[in-house]
Write a structure and sequence with these properties.
There is one protein chain. By secondary structure, this protein is an alpha+beta fold. The chain has a single domain, classed as Alpha-Beta Plaits, CATH 3.30.70. Helices cover 37% and strands 35% of the residues. Strands 2-3-1-4 form a 4-stranded antiparallel β-sheet. Helix 1 runs antiparallel to helix 3. The N and C termini lie close together (7 Å). The mean pLDDT is 97.
Length: 97
Amino acid sequence: MIVHIVMFKFKEQNKEQNIAKTKELLNSLVSKIEELTSLEVGVNFDTAERAYDLSLYSKFASKEDLNSYAIHSEHLKVVAFIKTVVVDSKVVDYIVE
């Protein structure tokens, strides 16, 4: 199994609305992308300087499924929106054996 985690730091302008919309868009991918076996989106309540605002935790059966997800048209639509509202993101992908 592959775990894909992404953390996002949002721009201050319309921050709460953009976090809510991003959460909604990401959650909608579960029903649209077959390769996505599970997904969890969390909004951070910590306001520390080093904290990120939202995290995505998702699982895939294989690296190939993760790669298919990455280029899926529905995922790319969400990515296009996210790029307009975030200032930074971090990612980690790992294999669970």
